[in-house]
Each structure stands twice: as C-alpha cells, then as structure tokens.
Amino acid sequence: MGEDTVFKFKDEESFKYFINNNNEYMVINFSGTNVIQSMYMNSTFAKLSKEYPNIKFIQLDRYELYRVFYEYKVSKVPTFMFRCEGGFVDMRADSGPKTLTKKVQEYSEQAKITVHKIKDEQLLNELFANNNFLVINFCSTRGNSCFQTNLTFAQLSKKHPKVKFIQLDIYEMSDIFNKSGVVKTPAFMFLCDLDDIRLYYDFNSHYLTMRVEAFSKQAEADQADQAN
Question: Quick one: which H or E segment has residue 138?
C-alpha cells in the first residue's frame, strides 16, 4: 500500500467540478477541525484510501466549506456520504471505524462490477462485432433521472456474465443516441446477433431485472447449442 489518496478541497467550485465530472465510486468525509471524533475518523479514512484504490476518497472541512454542508443537509461531523453513477447512494453519521470499514468494503465490491462505459464510437462498433448478446443502457449521468436504473444495471452485470453490458451517456455519445432513435432516457436496447434489436423505455429496476434475466437465459441456451 502506498500513500493515502484523499482529495481535500478548500473551495466549493473545485469540489463541485470534481464530483460533477467523475462518475466513479466516491466516499465523501464531511469532517470538522478540532472535533475529536472527526479527527479520529480522519486517520481511518486515510487508511481506507490506501486499501481501496478503486474508490475516490474526498474530505471536506465544515469550517472551509460550510455552504456545501448546508446544501447536503449535513448537521453532524463526521458524516460519510457514498456516491456513484452521478448520484448519492447512502449517508452515514457518526460511523465508527468498524462500521465505516465494513461499508467501504461492500462499496468496493460493488465498484468492481463490469459495465463498459463507452465514449468512442469505434470501440462501440468493435463490441458489436465481437459479441452476440448485448444490453445497452442509454442514460444520463447528470441529475437523478437514471440513478436507480444505473445502479441496477451495474448489479445485473455482475450476475449475468453471458451478456455484455454497455452504458452510453447522452452528454458523451449524443450522435449514437440520434442514430439509434433514442428519444429519452433511460432507454435499454437488447441486441442479439444484430438481427434481433429491441428498444425499451420506462423500465424501472424490477422490469429491467426481469428482462435481463430472460435475455441471459437466451444467451446461455444459445451458447449451449453452439457447443453441441
């Protein structure tokens, strides 16, 4: 393990630019100078940043960024906020070292889930050419409109390895959205050999899970047929 990689921001603009331009998994430590419990937990936070490099660790001080604390309704320090896919997942106040460590461990496992977040059309075409069963999540990572389905999509990618999961952001791949005829987010496209293409809107997490499970069974049956 190397040095801790805790990002410490002292101005609101830099902090908001960072979180708005990163869709990675983050833990934000809302801390307070001279608050004993907060100072105690800062060392645990720094230690965890060494052990879990697949998560971004951010630390803010209420005396420097009190407006951010007010905006996110943080009234106690330390408070730990967990963020992924452009939205906030969970908030924990007054967590001790064991509780925080357990939560970060779980969060790190979730961060290992494989969703291909494509920003290049050529790479997307290569995935089309080399994979038979694909699910594409046409989403927006700004705001909360796609937040829950993005989380479900990531979780499903871990459970169904026979299917390739691809995520496209409208702010990065707008041309593909237009070419695919996608008119709103979230939208989910299921592709089988590029011959059977189905586009769905208004899926909540329940219906997305059901459709992916059926699609995964189809992929498994197809691979079994090819093996015989």
Answer: strand 133-139
Q: How far apart are CA 68 and CA 8, in angstroms?
A: 14
Are 44 and 100 within 8 A, CB to CB? yes
Neighbours of 199 (CB within 10 A): 15
Ranges of residues in the chain with a pLDDT under 70 are 1-4, 23, 85-89, 113, 143, 194, 227-228
Is the separation of the CB atoms in 210 and 204 below 8 Å?
no
Instruction: Say if CB 150 and CB 135 are below 8 A apart.
Output: no
Residue 159 gets the label, from left (phi > 0), alpha (psi -120 to 50) or beta, of alpha
- The pair of structure tokens assigned to 120 is 């290049």
Answer for the pair 202, 171: CB distance below 8 angstroms, yes or no: no
* Residue 113: predicted pLDDT: 67
According to the model, what pLDDT value does residue 19 have?
A: 86
How far is residue 155's CA from residue 112's CA, in Å, rounded to a whole number? 10
Q: Would you tell me how many other CB atoms lie within 10 Å of the CB of residue 62? A: 21
pLDDT value at residue 162:
86
